[in-house]
Every structure is written in structure tokens, then in C-alpha cells.
Write a structure and sequence with these properties.
alpha/beta; 7 strands; seven-stranded parallel beta sheet
Amino acid sequence: MTASRRRVFVTGGSRGIGKAIALRLAREGASAVAIGYFRSDAAAEETADEIRALGAEPVLVRGNVTSSRVEEQVAALGPLDVLVHNAATGVIRPALETEDKHWDWTLNANARALLALTRVVAPSMPRGSSIVGISSLGSVRVLDNYSLVGTSKAALEALVRYLAVELAPLGVRVNAVSAGVVETGALEHFPNREEMLSSGLARTPVGRLVEPGDIADAVSFLCSPEAAMVCGHTLIVDGGFSLLA
């Protein structure tokens, strides 16, 4: 599957990391790039204009990523060559201050949605297609106030491994990208945002924080023919942050 023929869907694709991924795949020549979003029509329209300027057909998929409405819209897109589950949400607070509804909301959006969307798109994906889940270091490291989101990302990575084994015989690769600290609007929900940024920069051996484009580069690789034998892998993109004791 050549990049110029690919049809792509990126959840959470209107801003931040998801937008960088959508634009990167459009820049590589994808014929159509669908972006999922929940709230901001203005941000989605702006991203759609940028996708169009790069020569790809933009498609907007609006709604809660866990909803049947989104599944129906995705089914209507027709066969896809790339599915990227980037959308993420969750309650950022200590574990003992969370409620069951917070667990359900976080796990459903960050992990179960990937399974639901895969059930919709995988049967019609051509050989050589790719599915990528966007994870974070909180899946394997303990971060302040991150108990629910970290658990959901661990579930996402486990699901990626199971899906990889199940879909590999069909010619569909499934992998994940685990991002280090990235300065996007998502960090505004963290009470210790400034501390995360400063400590992240100080602890990162390469001397800078991860940028959305770095994650897009990794996704691009995993969706390329050069990654044909990368199966069920979680690619860490953190500038060496997680290597230090």
C-alpha cells in the first residue's frame, strides 16, 4: 500500500498530537484523512483546511469516541488503510479520590474504544494496513494523579499485543507509540503542569521535550512498509527520559 493511496482515520485528530499525525499522513500523500473530535468545531475545521491544502480529502467525524454514533460514521468511511487511536481523556486525581464512573469513562475512551473501532474497520482493511494506539509512559511508570489514565494506557498496550497476534495473519499490523512529556493543551488538566515540564526537560538526555511531530514521525514509520515486521510493539518516544533511574 503506497502512501498516496491510503485512507486514514485519526481519533482526537483536530489538535495536539492527533493533528500532527493527521497532517503528517496527509503530507505523505494520503488520499483521505478523517479526523475524530468531540468539542471544538472551529479547531476541526481549521485542521480540515490544512489537510485539504496538503492535497488530501478531509472528513470530520464528530462525537464521543466511545459512542455508537462514531462507530457508524467510521463504518461509513469505507475501507481504511490506517487507524490511529489518539483520543484520550480521564480523571486526573489520586486513586482514592476517584469513583467507579471515572474508571468507566477513562478506560472506555482510552482502551475500549480502540477495540470497538478495530472491530468496525479491521474486516475491510487491505493487507499492509496499520493500526496504531497512542500510549504514554504512565502505562509502566507511576505518575502523580495518573492512576486511572495510566491504567487505561496499560490496558491499551495489552490490547495492542492481542490485536497484533489476531490480525497479523490478515496482513494488518497493530502497534503503539508511547509518548514522553509533550507540551500540548492536554497538560492543562494536570495540577502539576509546570513541574512536569521543568522536570521533564531537566531529565531528558537529548535536551528538549518531545514534540507532537516526534510522535507523528513514529506513527509514520509504523504505518510504512519499512515496519513490515514490527508487530505488537510499543515504541517509546521520550528522548531517553525513561532510561534514568
